# Entry
Amino acid sequence: MLELPLPPEDLRVRVGPFSDAPLFERSGNDMVAEIVQLCDLQPDAVVLEVGCGCGRLARALARYLRPQGNYDGFDVHEPMIAWCQNNLQPHLSNFRFMHVDVYSPDQNPAGYIKASKFSFPYPDCTFDSLIVSSVFTHMFPEEIERYVSELARVLKPGGRGFLTAFLFDEAGHAAVTSGATIFDFRYPIGPCLTFDREHPEQGVACQRDWLLELLDRHGLEVKLVRNGTWRSVRSYKVSQDYITATKRGETFHPPPTILATTFAV
Ligand SMILES: C[S@@+](CC[C@H](N)C(=O)[O-])C[C@H]1O[C@@H](n2cnc3c(N)ncnc32)[C@H](O)[C@@H]1O
# Structure
């Protein structure tokens, strides 16, 4: 099995409750196994991960993707991307990690591009698969809207997206009211809610209908919504909700003029 370096603890704990290195590794492997199954991810897929952090999923994908597959990951936190570039990229010729200087109050306070105006640095219809794990849980409505439109732009027709979020619904509301969840989403921010009025980016839930309609409006047809355990488990070891979506439209076929030229030669 491909042995890849593990990020140091100070980076692991930036992406979750992962001071325990084996847990970091296991959680990445488990999530990638679920993505493969839920999104029919192929070993030769061209994959984009938005908010890739310190490579929790990239390390697991490296064992699954073949050399014909490709992985691009970007993040706003420069030290995590530098770690991936220095420690993972040299072992993985088909993996690229990019720092984007997008403002994030927590992870990139000096960033000069607003997330709500950011254009992903990739051409239209580039990727077969998109992964956005635990990123919308730290973003605000206008930013999420922009990212969804960019996700739709860079995904190939027929391509699949895997996203995680806290989808705020009746059960979420009941969990907050009864104290069944540690995520006390009681402060609204437009169609989202946070549990931390001072530092709202620490945890953001999206109204379920708003996020699902937003995806649909951008041509991302929601295929599956699977509730995580955050509504009922009083621990940080909880799972978020999973959403998978497919971009509407035909998969790409060369236009007839190109075919005619090809046959004429
Ligand atoms: C909870 S961590 C999850 C990291 C990774 N997706 C994973 O599942 O291991 C959230 C990540 O989102 C990144 N992030 C926050 N705002 C972002 C933005 N506007 N664009 C891209 N990444 C962002 C953070 O820097 C951080 O790495």
Summary: The beta strands are 46-50, 70-75, 95-99, 127-132, 155-168, 187-189, 192-194, 204-207, 220-226, 241-247. The chain has two domains: 1-113, 117-265. Residues 15-16, 50-53, 56-57, 75-77, 80, 102, 104, 107, 115, 133-135, 138-139 surround S-adenosylmethionine (CB under 6 Å).
